[in-house]
Every structure is written in C-alpha cells, then in structure tokens.
Amino acid sequence: MRRLAALLLLAAATPAAAQQDFSKVEIKVEQLAPGVAVLFGAGGNIGLSYGEDGNVLIDDQFAPLVPKIEAAVKTLDPDPIKFVINTHWHGDHTGGNEQLGKAGAVIVAHDNVRERLSIETFSKRFNRAIPAMPKAGLPVVTFTQGVSFHLNGDRIQVVHVPHAHTDGDALVYWTKANVLHMGDTFFHRVTFPFIDLESGGSIDGAIAAAKRGLELVKPGGKVIPGHGPTATREDLQAYHDMLVDVRSKVAAGIAAGRTREQIVASKPAAGYLGRTQEGFIKADDFVGTVYESLRAK
C-alpha cells in the first residue's frame, strides 16, 4: 500500500514521475473479452480496445512507462495506438499523454480535463504546484456529456459523470463486450475512495457515478476500477452501497450537530475494513472528506 500511496502522490505532479524508478514495473495484460483487455502497471488501470480498427487506450499511467505499455499492447495487436481516452486529469492516468500524442494518438477527454491540464494548478492536499501539460499531451477532442466510438466490432460509450472523483470524470463502456471502465470513481479493495474536492469531486457525485455505472454494465459484466483488480457488477454494487451508507451516517452526525472530529471518531466506515484495505486513503480520511463535501453544499 505504500507503493500505491507513492504513485498516487505522483498523480499530483506528473513531472515528479521522472524521479521515480519505473525500471522494475511490469505491465501485466488481462484479457476480458474479445478485443478488450486491461493493463496493470503503476498508476491507474489501463483499458484497451484492439482489433481491425486500431488500438484505443483508456488512460496511460506515467510517461516513463509508455514504451512498456506500447510493448504490452503489441502482444495483442501490432498496430499503433490510435486513440487515448482520459477518464480524468490526474497524472497517474494522463502521464503518457504527451508521448503518445507526439506519436500520433488522438487524445479525447471531458472539457474540464483539458481545462485543468492546460494550466498550472496548486494542490493544497499535496502542497505542490502541478505544471500545465505540454500542448502535445492535451486532449484535442473534448466532450460535455459523452461520445461514442464505433470501433473493433463494438460501441465504446463514453459517459461524463459530474462532480464525482473530480469534475471531469468519464465512464467508458463496451456495449457488446459488457465491460465497464470506471476510472477513479471506483477504487476496488486497495484503498478507501479518494474524492478530490479540490478538483470538483463530491460524495453525492461519487454515489451518482457508481449508480450510473450500475445502469450501464449488465449482469455478468466485468468492471475495471481505477485502481485494484478487475471487479464484477456485484463488487460495484457493494461499493455504491458503502458510499451511500457512510454518507448517511455522516449526514446524520451533521444533522445532530456533531463536529468533524466527533463524526470521524464514531468510525462510520469501520464496518468496511474487511473488504477494503487502508491504502492511500484511510477510513478516517474518507469519512473526513465526506463530511467536508456535505458541509460545502
């Protein structure tokens, strides 16, 4: 879990990845359906559509890993990467943008992803400045609500979910393969949820995103989380229910006039410790974020 925390810290400042040793990182490929796979490495999980129409990546981790990512893709399809879809703006999901953009990939994301990547930002949480993304790494195709790709024998549906993990989150659903990439609106087993309030995230948006994901993926489908192993629809349902339960308990505490410290001390997320590890985000951290999100309403 220390490694996950370190990698998520790099999400706040992609150039810092240049100081991280990625030489021992192995990109592992798991095929989920014909023409659909997930790549695990360092940073956010990468979705892949491959086939006769070209390779489409969902997120691209860190710049130093791009050669390894490209090599992993070639084990399934020798063609170059044609499109990159960013699920949100954090550096552990967009760090390869510049290199892949220079190589000819068309980068696609929500309007707010381009806006956030285009400017220098200061993160209070990480106490550091996040430089703007070079032009070659910026999304050149953006959307407000969503967009569809009709490639490789499937319809890849990209759906914006507002103010969830951030204000630019997108879910990506292969309608024929019944595979859903949730980005960081879903952390599976490895840590409690990270709701980036500074980037426009909220607990209510996180719940709505999980609900939208459940509407998209059909029974028997597979779900790619932003971090953690491949999940099922039932895993996503349990995640949604956890978000709802913790929100309800925190809201009740606020209504009763309790302070942030009192609500955190009541341990409203403790019942989920057996299913979710305390990784980058501890249970108490998550509860505190839910409190702050609700108080900001």
If you had to describe this structure to a student in words, what would you say it looks like?
The chain is α/β, with parallel strands linked by helices and about 300 residues long. It has a 7-stranded mixed beta sheet. A 6-stranded mixed beta sheet has the order 10-11-12-13-14-15. Strand 10 and strand 11 form a beta hairpin.
Question: Which keywords apply here?
Answer:
single chain, about 300 residues, alpha/beta, 7-stranded mixed beta sheet, 6-stranded mixed beta sheet, 9 helices, about 20% strand, globular, disordered N terminus
Compact summary:
By secondary structure, the chain is α/β, with parallel strands linked by helices. 31% of the residues lie in helices and 22% in strands.
Strand arrangement within the widest β-sheet reads 1-2-3-4-5-6-9
List the total number of helices.
9
Distance linking N and C termini: 32 Å
- Most strands sheet: 7 strands, mixed
Can you tell me the residue ranges where pLDDT is under 50 for at least 5 consecutive residues? Answer: 1-18
- The share of residues in helices is 25-40%
Order of secondary-structure elements? HEEEEHEHHEHEEEEEEEHEEHHH
Name the average pLDDT: 93
Strand composition percent: 15-25%
What's the count of strands? 15
Radius of gyration: 18 Å
Shape: globular
**Structural class by sheet pairing and helices:** alpha/beta
Which helices and strands appear, and what pairs or packs with what?
Blueprint lengths: L1 H9 L17 E6 L2 E5 L5 E4 L5 E4 L7 H9 L6 E5 L5 H4 L2 H6 L3 E5 H8 L2 E3 L4 E3 L10 E3 L2 E6 L2 E7 L9 E5 L4 E3 L21 H14 L5 E3 L6 E2 H23 L4 H6 L17 H13 L2
Helix pairs in contact: 6-7, 7-9
